[in-house]
Amino acid sequence: MGRTMQNRMVRKLDLEIALSKIGQHPCPKAYLEQYTIPPAVAAQLLHMAAYTYDDLIGKAVADLGCGTGRLAIGSALLGAKEVIGVDVDKIATKTALKNAEKLGVKRQTQWITADVSTIRGSFDTVLQNPPFGVQKRRADRKFLETAMRIGRRIYSLHKSIRKATKPAAKSRATSIALIPNAPSPFLKGLIEGHGGQIKALYTLPIHVPYMFDFHRKRKHKVLVDLYVIEAHLQPEKTPSKPVSRTRNKEPATSFPKSKGLFEGAREKDN
Predict the structure, then answer these.
(1) Taken in order 44, 46, 47, 53, is the CA torsion positive or negative?
(2) 238, 121 in Cβ contact below 8 A?
(3) What average pLDDT does range 203-230 have in this prediction?
(4) Which residues are registered as beta bridge partners of 22?
């Protein structure tokens, strides 16, 4: 599975196997909460987005806080027309570029090193696994705000405020059980306050491996909520000239509607 497979339905297991080949971040930073989404969870999210909601095949997709590119690359493998991944960490985007080349989707993907709040334009679908706010309270807020500004349909993972039910507690990392649930009151208010509507919400387990000195277990299970959100885009003014490259202190990166996606900053091999 080294190229797009949009002409036929891809088995979830095949997608998970392909995503497991994506390289990890070589030096993740705790303050950025750089936990790579597990292949099984990524496959579950992407399979649902592609075949339940028809939000990937032939679509323009953005992955905010892309890390090493698992969601963005998976979108390209499933047939997204064009995909960008955005991350503030240059090492992450360089690793994502190498991963995209490894899995044969380099031409369909673009990697931007920038703060997610600087992104402008419109996308059919936004995917994100933002920081849960463990290191910095409500760090996921700007991700949601940006996603609802640039996307029509959003798939966003957030730490659940609820305890595991028995089915979720017994779920294994390679067998993901989706449990319908009610949203966090704070996130519900934030989403609706920005004109969004929660179409569905599922709770599922993520297994976080030992990565940092403050971890006490070899593996820790965290329940997360997957929000499926419908946003109502507001028209934005597009600069007359696209920005050639974006860094944290530079002006916002603008992507004209769909056709101009690849005119923005792109990570190059060094």
Answers:
(1) positive
(2) yes
(3) 73
(4) none
The answer to whether residues 159 and 133 touch, using CB atoms and an 8 Å cutoff, is: yes
Distance, CA of 150 to CA of 188 (rounded, Å) = 19
For residues 173 and 42, the answer to whether their CB atoms sit within 8 Å is no
pLDDT confidence of residue 59: 97
Alpha carbon distance 106, 79 (integer Å)? 13
Mean pLDDT of 120-124: 95
Contact 59, 83 (CB under 8 A): no
Q: Which amino acid is at 173?
A: A
Pairing of strands 197-209, 219-230: antiparallel
* pLDDT of 119 above 70: yes
Q: How confident is the model at residue 46 (pLDDT cuts 50, 70, 90)?
A: very high
Residue-range domains of the chain with CATH = 12-263 (3.40.50.150)
Tens digits of per-residue pLDDT, 92-118? 999 999 999 999 999 999 999 999 999
User: Is 0.85 topped by the overall pTM?
Assistant: no
For residue 132, CA distances in Å to 10, 79, 156, 185, 258 come to 30, 29, 11, 16, 30
Region for residue 67 given its phi and psi (left: phi exceeds 0; alpha: psi -120 to 50; beta: otherwise): left
Q: CA 45: distance to chain centroid?
A: 10
Q: Can you tell me the distance from the alpha carbon of 2 to that of 101, in angstroms, rounded to the nearest whole number?
A: 9
